[in-house]
Amino acid sequence: MIGSYIASFDSRLFSIGLADLRGAFSLGFDEGAWLATAAFGAQILIAPAVSWLATVFGVRRIFVVPSLLYASVSLFIPFVGNYEALLALHVARGLLLGLFVPATVMIIFRNLPMSWWLPAIALYAFRTPFSLNTGVSLGGFYAQTIGWQWMYWQDALIAPLMGVFMYLGAPHERVNRELLFKADWGGMLLFGTSLTLLYVGLDQGYRLNWLESGIVVATLCGGGALMLTFFLNEALVSEPWASTTVLASRNISLMLIATIFFTLTCISNTTLVPNFLATVGQLRPEQTGSLLLFYGTLPLFVLMPVCVFLLRRIDKRFVMMLGFSAFAAASLLGATLSSDWRLDDFVPVVLLQSIGYSFTFLTVIVFAVANLNPTRATAFSAYVQVLRLGGTQIGVALMGTYLRVREQTHSNLLGQHLGSGDETVTLTLNAWASKFSADDMDLGYARALSALSSATQKQAYVLAYLDGFRLTFWMAILGLVTIVFMARSPAGPFTPKGTEA
Known about the structure:
By secondary structure, this protein is mainly α. It has helices spanning 2-25, 29-46, 50-57, 59-76, 83-97, 103-111, 117-146, 150-169, 177-181, 185-208, 214-236, 250-265, 267-279, 285-297, 300-311, 316-334, 347-370, 377-415, 423-436, 441-484. The chain has 20 helices and no strands. Helix 4 (59-76) runs antiparallel to helix 8 (150-169) and helix 16 (316-334) runs antiparallel to helix 20.
C-alpha cells in the first residue's frame, strides 16, 4: 500500500509543482515538459509487465532492492545541476516507481483472507482521489514553506519503510523457472515500447501542436506500428504473455470501456477545477488546496466505507451508476460557472466529485476482479496498467488541447463584437483611459486596450471551461450507458449478501 500511495502522490506533486521545479532547476518550458514526459513514460514502459515479473521472481525481489534504489535516486535528484543527468535520473526513478503499484492487488488476493479483500481494495482505491485532492495542498506547502526538495525527499524517507515491511512480511519465493523459460520477452518489449511511444506522442502533442510536429508524428506512427506488431506476436507465439482473449469477455470489455469514460469524466476534478482557479481566479496551489482538502479529501473517509457497505449488499452496477451520476451532476453544476466563481462556489461541485470517485473507482476494480478468470489475471493486469497510467495523463493532454482550441475559438468570436470604432467600445476605452492615467491619455489608452484584451481573454477562458464541464458531463452519460449493457457478475467472494442465488 505504501508503494501505491507513493506512486499516486509522486504523479500529482510532479504535475502540480512542475512550474516550481522548472524554476529550481533553471529549466525552460520545453525542458520541463520533456522532464515530465520522461518520468511518466518510464512508468508506462515497465508497469504492464510487473505482475508477470512478480509471479516469476516473487514480490520480495520486485520491491525490496528497488525501494532502496528509488529512495537513493529521490534523495540525490535535488542536487543535480546538469539537465541530461536530471533527465536520466527521472527516467530511472520512473522505472522504479512503475514497479510499485501493479503488484499491490495481486498481493491482496494472495496474502489476505477472503473476508479482507473488499476493505483492502477500498484502501487501494482510496489512494487515487486522496492523492489528487491532497496533493494540491501538499505541493503548495512544499514549494512555499519547507522547500521544493521535499517533493523528492518525502519518498526518500518513506520508500525504505516499504522495503523493510516487504522484507519482513513477504514470503521468500523461489524463481518460477518454468515461466521464466517460456517468457514472451518480445511481447513484453513490444507492448511496453509501443505504449511509451504513444504516450510521448499524445503528451507532447498538446505542446507541439500535434501533426505539425515531426516528433509527434514519428512517435504516434511508431507506437501504432509496434502495437500492431504486438497483437500479431500474441496471436502467433505458443505462450503469449498478454493474450488478447482476456478481452473477449463481455463484462471485462465493457468494464474497460467504462473505465475510459471514468478517466475522462474525473478530469473535471483533476484538471478543470484547479486549473480554472489558477487561470481565471489567479490562485496558487496552496490557496486552492484547502477546497480540495476539506471537500474532496475528508469526505472520502466516510464515502469509502459507505461504498464498501453498498457493495456487500447491492449489485455492483447500481453502485457504479451512483458514481457516474454524481460526476454528471458535478459537471452540470460546473457548466453554470462564471468569472466571479471562487473557492466557495466550487464546494458542491467538489463534494459531488468526491462521491463520484468513491463510488466509481472502487466499484470498477471490484467488478473487474469479480468477472475475471483467475488464470488470465496476469494478462489482464497488463491492459489495466495501460488505463491506470496512460489514461489519466492522455486524458489531461487531450482536455488541455480541447480547452486551448475552445479558448481560441471564443476569443475570436468575442473579438468580432469589439470592433474598432464601435461606439460602446470607444466609450469604454475612453472611460478606462481617464482612470488609468489622467495626465497622459496615450499611456492611459494603451493601458485601457491591455485591460480590455485581458478581460476578453478571461471571458474566453470561462467559456472554454464551461465547454470542458459539458464534455465531462457527456462522458459520464456514456459511462452510464455502458453500465446498462453489463451483465450480472458471476457468483463469488464479491457477490452481495442475499443475492447468492
